[in-house]
Every structure is written in structure tokens, then in C-alpha cells.
Amino acid sequence: MENFENLISLNHKTSKASPTRGETETHLYDAVVIGSGPAGYTAALYLGRAGYAPLLIAGALTPGGQLVNTTEVENFPGFPEGILGPDLMENMRKQAEKFGTILVYDDVTETDLSGTIKTLTTDSGTVYRTRTVIIATGSSYRKLGIPGEEQYSGRGVSYCATCDGFFFKDKPIVVVGGGDTALTDALFLSRFGSSVTLIHRRDTFRGSQILVERAQKNPRITFVLNSTVSEVKGDGTAAQSVIVHNTQSGKDTELAAKGVFIAIGYTPQTKFLDNNLSLDDDGYILVDGETTKTSIPGVFAAGDAADRIYRQAISAAGMGCRAALDAQSYLENL
Fold it and tell me: What is the reaction catalyzed (predicted)?
């Protein structure tokens, strides 16, 4: 144990050097994790416990991912009373650092992943060299960009039905969107809300027909079509209603809504890769089967940047664990 701790301490000191802008770090890492949500922190934790002292590039402005903007998290195992999103991310960060993870608060802007030694350039101009890379940059919710949306985010406005639906038990709920996510959210939220109104800008849905039919048969779901939400209104503390604009008549109406769930899609944070990896049409990183291996050996992906289906903290953490194990296997076979 003493030797292991000394190794971590040595790596920690070596990697803490602060190169001037544009300088390449002389240290060669075994693993660099890009992203600091549940996937990134878990990957770093596993790599650290295996003795690799990984570097984690956490992001300059919003380390911790989407959960730092979430209030109560009640569905993460191990916290029967729930935990605040920022507290959960802080605990994960501390645990990763405890086992030797080195954190850098910067953003990766350029990558060269083709060789045996990968290079990552950050916004500060520093170039990091590493044998393996785990990309865990997540995705961001697409927003409506309307008055009141930002003000009441976390106070009525939500982007995650499975995270926040329970808080709106017996209250009027609005869901905005017309794809599979919006339809699935509406069906899920119908278990809780006194009513669920699905607002869609067209008169046809992009979602699968089976979900459309299920929603149409659900007596607690009402459809408002050819309409958009132009404003979220509240009492200064929480959301109370939305302004609905009919795109055909031009008429505006106010609709009671204690919960406003925006489900118009996600944007994976992969633009910095500049198509150096194989991505799908929407920008999600493609992985090989059940593994986290990408199209380039030594590069792995975890969390919402590669997972377009589940998008949960616990599934991201699990994928981060798998990415770390895949990276360890790769390193052992070099």
C-alpha cells in the first residue's frame, strides 16, 4: 500500500506542472479522461484504483456535468433520502481524487487520436500526451430559449421526466416535443400528474406509431398540436403556467402547468472531435457492440456522448466503469 501511495504521489507531482500556453507536457499519461460527469468520474476512479493515476480534463466552466444543475436526486442507489446533484458530483470527484486522479479544469479543443500516443490540446494551449483516452463529455439538453425557461429551471422546468416526475404528483404537467422522448415522457408522467398536456408544433408526430397510439389511448394525456410554448410564467419561486401560441390561428392562451418538461432532443458534446472518430448521424460516438471501444484503438467512450437511449446517471457511471476496464485491458496488452 505504501508503494502504491508513493507512486500516486509521484505521478501527482509530476503531472501538476503548469506548462505555458502552447507547451506540450513532458509527462506521458497512461490514461486521460475527458469529461467530469458520472461516467468520467467513475472511469477515473477505476483507473486510479488500478494504479494508473489518470488525468481528468473536467471542463473549464461546468465540471460535474448536467447533475450540477439538478436539485434532488432520488434514484441513485445508496442514497435512500436522496442527494443533491452537486453533492453527488462532489462526492464522486473526491473519491476519484482519493485514488490518484489528477484534475485539470480546461476544455479539449483539438485531438490527434491516430497514433499509439494520442495528443489532446486544450483551450489554454496545453498539449497532453497519453496512451489511452476515455471520452465522457456527455450531451446537453436542447432548450426552447423562451422567457422563463432559465429562470424556472429546476423549479418547475425540467429536462428529465424520470428524474423529476415524482415531484409533480397530482399537479398539471406540460410536455413539449413530438418525438419518442416526448411521447415516452408523457406516458411516464401520466402516472403522477393530475393531467398531462403534450404540446407539439406540428399536427403529426416524429415518434414511433406505437408510442403515438399509446399516448392517444391514455385518458390522462391531452394533445395540443400546431402549437408552441412561447413563455413559462411563475410566481418568482416556481413555474405556474405556460403561454401556448397556436401557429395557425396566431392566438395565445395560458395553460396551467406546475411541471414543464422539455423534450425536444439532446446534443452530444462531440464537436471537438472534428469527426476523428466514427459518429452516427446525430453526433453520438459509435462503440463496438457491448464494449466501449470506438473506431480507434486506445480510445473509449462512455456516458451520454455514446448512449442515446438511457441517459441516466447510474447507467453513465456503469459505462464509465466498463470504459476503464476496457482501457486497462488495452494497456495491459500493449
Answer: [thioredoxin]-dithiol + NADP(+) = [thioredoxin]-disulfide + NADPH + H(+)
Active site residue 321: no
Closest to 222 (Cα-Cα) out of 247, 196, 248, 204: 196
**Per-position b or e across 8-36, b if 16+ CB within 10 A of its CB:** beebeeebeeeeeeeeebebebbbbbbbb
Q: What share of the chain is helix, strand, coil (3-state, %, to 5)?
A: 30, 30, 45
User: Is residue 112 among the annotated active site residues?
Assistant: no
Q: Which of 164, 185, 304, 326 is catalytic?
A: 164
Tens of pLDDT, residues 239-293: 999 999 999 999 999 999 999 999 998 889 999 999 889 999 999 999 999 999 9
Q: Classify domain 157-262 at the CATH topology level.
A: FAD/NAD(P)-binding domain (3.50.50)
Q: Which of 3.40.50.460, 2.40.340.10, 3.60.9.10, 3.50.50.60 would CATH assign to domain 28-140+266-332? A: 3.50.50.60
Please compute the mean of the pLDDT values over residues 223-235 and round it to a whole number. Answer: 97
Helix axes 38-49, 313-332, angle to 10 degrees: 40
Please tell me whether residue 247 adopts helix, strand or coil conformation.
coil
Annotated catalytic residue, options 30, 163, 307, 326? 163
Residue 107 annotated as catalytic: no
> How many other C-beta atoms can be found within 10 angstroms of the C-beta atom of residue 327?
30
In the set 87, 107, 123, 160, the catalytic residue is: 160
pLDDT tens sequence across 97-152: 999 999 999 999 999 999 999 999 999 999 999 999 999 999 988 999 999 999 99
Instruction: For residues 232 and 129, give the distance between their C-alpha atoms in angstroms, rounded to a whole number.
Output: 47
User: What's the predicted TM-score (pTM) here?
Assistant: 0.76
